[in-house]
Amino acid sequence: MHIYDNPEFESKSRYAINVWHCCWKSFKKIYYVTYFDESGQAQVEIADESYKKTGMEISVEPDWIIEVWEGYRAGSDLYFGI
């Protein structure tokens, strides 16, 4: 967390708004989908958690990856930059 001080504004001023900057990490579920292409070669693609099986897959292996997030909060209820 970084705290910046601007001497032109007093913290009790009606023009002062608290702004928070936050970074965090979360996990996202993915699937490694293996299938045969038109030439008969095995191919592996990465699909997100909304993937629906088609029946043409050789295998579908779940895994988790790390996502990095960043965002801001101004005042008590304004969120942006997420």
What features would you describe in this structure?
This protein has a four-stranded antiparallel β-sheet with strand order 2-1-3-4, with no helix packed on it. The chain is rod-shaped and about 70 Å long. It starts with 18 loop residues before the first strand and ends with a strand. The mean pLDDT is 85. The protein has no helices and four strands. Strand 3 (57-74) and strand 4 (78-80) form a beta hairpin. It has one domain (19-80). The protein is mainly beta and 82 residues long. The chain has strands spanning 19-36, 42-48, 57-74, 78-80.
Summarize, please.
The protein has 82 residues and is an all-beta fold. It has no helices and 4 strands.
Counted beta strands: 4
User: What is the average of the pLDDT values?
Assistant: 85
Which class of secondary structure composition applies to the elements? mainly beta
- Alpha-carbon distance between the two ends: 17 Å
Q: Walk across the major sheet and give the strand order.
A: 2-1-3-4
Oligomer: single chain
Q: Unreliable stretches, pLDDT < 50, 5 or more residues?
A: none
Approximate strand percentage: over 45%
Radius of gyration: 23 Å
Estimate nothing, just give the exact number of structural domains: 1
Order of helices and strands: EEEE
Question: Into which percent range does the helicity of residues fall?
Answer: under 10%
Shape: rod-shaped
Number of helices: 0
Largest sheet properties: 4 strands, antiparallel
